């Protein structure tokens, strides 16, 4: 369970997130959509304890991230696939992660299999990985501790259609076993293929929220909705 309650985050004069609330229940993939600078990453950073909310709360599994008993194992995160050290091999990165979490080395092989990276690929340096391979490695890293919640910032970035389909299968399997997923993107079509529900934000405020079925049932074209609502959002008066 992910609960964002009246979350506001300011950076000096910049109101990055402006009083947003939503929840994501187990069994659901929630697509978190918004144009560049809308506040998606900031919300996720507040959720996983990398940024302190100015007001409001962001909790996961009913706790603030830092109050979880084993946050790195309970919550899998991929906030920046480019943060993976380019000079290390995928295998080294995952092995180090497994050691930190006190997991057996066999878990590394398991997550590599889960994300479809071969043993040979895992021994290559990350600098030589394609963007799609980096995303897979980032997801493997997020899955290491067998978390029940995944927080993924732009995981579909750079994936080709087959990669999107693969991610959909992986995340569907994850939520079918009771997992909860929050994933951000500014690419509506990619998220539409993966998510059960959507939260759209523009300039830090929620402009649309609902299940994919609900949003589509309104008869609106989602892309049109996204562009119109995020373009017309202002800090003074957001659409709800
Ligand atoms: N550490 C920071 N210091 C100052 N301003 C910041 C900081 N982090 C984010 N911001 C600002 O907060 C706003 C929201 O940024 P954020 O990165 O959360 O957006 P985003 O929706 O993730 O965008 P993108 O799709 O481009 O990644 C932007 O105006 C950004 O410049």
From TrEMBL:
Start and end residues of each ABC transporter domain: 2-228
Gene3D superfamilies, A to Z: P-loop containing nucleotide triphosphate hydrolases
Cited InterPro entries: AAA+_ATPase, ABC_transporter-like_ATP-bd, P-loop_NTPase
SMART domains: AAA (SM00382)
An MF annotation (GO) of this entry: ATP hydrolysis activity
Keywords recorded for this protein, A-Z: ATP-binding, Nucleotide-binding, Transport
PROSITE patterns (UniProt xref): ABC_TRANSPORTER_2
Family as reported in the entry's similarity comment: Belongs to the ABC transporter superfamily.
Protein name: ABC-2 type transport system ATP-binding protein
Lineage, opening ranks: Bacteria, Bacillati, Actinomycetota, Actinomycetes, Propionibacteriales
């Amino acid at each position: 369970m992910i609960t964002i309650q009246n979350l506001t985050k300011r950076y000096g004069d910049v109101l990055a997130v402006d009083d947003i609330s939503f929840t994501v229940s187990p069994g659901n993939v929630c697509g978190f959509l918004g144009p560049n600078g809308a506040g998606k990453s900031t919300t996720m950073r507040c959720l996983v304890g990398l940024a302190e909310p100015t007001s409001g709360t962001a909790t996961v599994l009913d706790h603030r991230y830092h109050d979880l008993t084993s946050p790195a194992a309970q919550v899998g995160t991929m906030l920046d696939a480019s943060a993976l050290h380019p000079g290390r091999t995928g295998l080294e990165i995952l092995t180090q992660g497994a050691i930190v979490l006190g997991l057996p080395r066999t878990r590394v092989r398991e997550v590599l299999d889960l994300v479809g990276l071969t043993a040979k690929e895992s021994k290559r340096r990350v600098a030589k990985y394609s963007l799609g391979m980096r995303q897979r490695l980032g997801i493997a890293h997020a899955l290491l501790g067998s978390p029940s919640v995944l927080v993924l910032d732009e995981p579909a970035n750079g994936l080709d259609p087959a990669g999107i389909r693969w991610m959909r299968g992986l995340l569907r399997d994850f939520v079918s076993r009771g997992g909860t997923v929050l994933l951000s993107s500014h690419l509506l079509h990619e998220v539409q293929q993966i998510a059960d529900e959507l939260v759209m934000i523009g300039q830090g405020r929620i402009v649309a929220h609902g299940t994919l079925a609900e949003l589509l049932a309104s008869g609106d074209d989602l892309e049109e909705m996204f562009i119109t609502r995020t373009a017309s959002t202002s800090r003074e008066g957001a659409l709800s």
